[in-house]
Structures are given as C-alpha cells and as structure tokens.
Amino acid sequence: MTLEGTNTWVLLEPGSSQAVVVDPGPLDEAHLATVLDHVAGRDARVALTLLTHGHADHAESADRWARLTGAPVRRCGRGHDDLREGEHLDVDGLEVLVVPTPGHTADSLSFLLPSEQVLLTGDTVLGRGTTVVAYPDGDLTSYLESLERLRTLTGSGAASSIAPGHGPVVPDAAGVVEHYWRHRHERLAQVRDAVARLQPGGGDLADRVVELVYADTPRAVWPAARLSVLAQLHYLGALDG
Q1: Strands 88-91 and 73-74, sheet pairing
Q2: CB within 10 Å: which end of the chain, N or C, has fewer?
Q3: 73-74 and 45-50 as β-strands: parallel, antiparallel, unpaired?
Q4: Contact in structure between 137 and 54 (CB atoms under 8 Å)
C-alpha cells in the first residue's frame, strides 16, 4: 500500500541553513536519524516540519521529530488547524504555498514550490498507481474537487512535476492528474453500473461491488478498494445510513 515506503522530503534553498521537512514518516528512529544526518550534511538545521495528512505512515513520528529538531510541526485538521488555504510560507527564501486537497483524508494538504513548479501531494496523487479515498474520513466529493484544483494548477503550468508521498517523482504533473481524474470518473461509472446489476440483499453491498469492479485486481488490495467503493456508494446515495 505504501509502494517503496513513505517519502520524506527535505527542502531548502541553495546556500540556506534552514530546511523544511515534509512528512517525517512513521516512528522509525533509524529513519529519523538518517533525515537528521541528511540535513546536517548540508550544514543546515530543520526550521519547519509540514504534514500532508495525519495517517501514521506520514505523521506518526511528528511529536518525536519535534522534540529531536526543536522545530514547529504544522498541519491541518485533527485539532491542528494552523495552515490556511493559499497561505505562503517563507523559510529563508524558500517559498511554499499551501494547497488544501481533501478527499484521501479530510485533512489532506498539498504544498506547491512556485519557483520550481513542484507540487508535493502526499497521498492525493501517488508516483505510481492510484490512491484510496479512505472512507469515512475520506470523501469522494472533496476528492473530485481537489482533483479539479490540481487540474487547474497543472494545466496552467504552475505545477509541472509532482513529488508524491509514495513512489517516484512524476515529471508530467498535468498528464498524471488528468489520468487520475479520468480514472476516478471511470471507476464511479463502474460502481454505478454494478449497483444497478446487483439484486437487493445477498450480503454486504460494498463487498459485492468490490468483487465485480475489482475482479482483476489482486485480492490483497481489496480491503483498500472497499474503502474507495464505500466512498463512491456514499457519493451515489447508495450507502445505507
């Protein structure tokens, strides 16, 4: 589910001694030490930490990381609403623009580096494959709106590449966001068709839809697919309750 693991991004302007770290990751002391060594090797210190969202594989180490670095950790949601839409952060010449992209989770954020046209997307867009709308915290309406926001950014050239939370850097931001947009609408059509074909009763609706729509997908990812199906059923008004 995390591909090669969670990407921790270290950002700093050339010649700067102040680094921004995005997503320190799970509570893995060896990994945290590696990131600290990486920053120190550039004669820098961590001045600010940003979280794309609160899932443990991105944020579990946040409190420990704050103690290690003495740097503030900023995030959205979960009692930490301290980043605003469109907010510009400046750390020793490094400009970061806050882009809310809820949908994968309610608190998901992306971060744009305007001078490099790089967009850090967390789990909203991955480096390979597609992401999960993690219902009930995740919401398909919000996710589709977020994809439209990213289509605008990438279509205008404001973001030309993507640094994702998992997987490799994506050099064609506009192409992958367009793929995500098409894929999500195609899946929604498939779920709508599956619901129409299924008879009432006969077991859990989400499970039966997964069996139909994800029949060619490895069963190992069916639990994650079920979360997205639940989000789609909720969007379609087909989810009881």
Answers
A1: unpaired
A2: C
A3: parallel
A4: no
Token pair of 240 as six digits: 């009881």
Residue 152: how many other CB atoms lie within 10 Å: 12
- Cα distances (angstroms) measured from residue 138 to each of 74, 115, 132, 142, 162: 20, 31, 8, 8, 21
Q: Is 23 in contact with 8 (CB distance < 8 Å)?
A: yes
| Model pLDDT for residues 58-86, shown as the tens digit of each residue | 999 999 999 999 999 999 876 666 788 88
Place of tokens 């020793």: 92
Q: What is the pLDDT of residues 131-177, one digit of tens each?
A: 999 999 999 999 999 999 999 999 999 999 999 999 999 999 999 99
Helix or strand (DSSP H, E) at 56 = helix 56-59
**This prediction's pTM:** 0.93
Which residues are within 8 A (CB) of 72 and not within 5 positions of it... i.e. 6 or more apart? 48, 49, 66
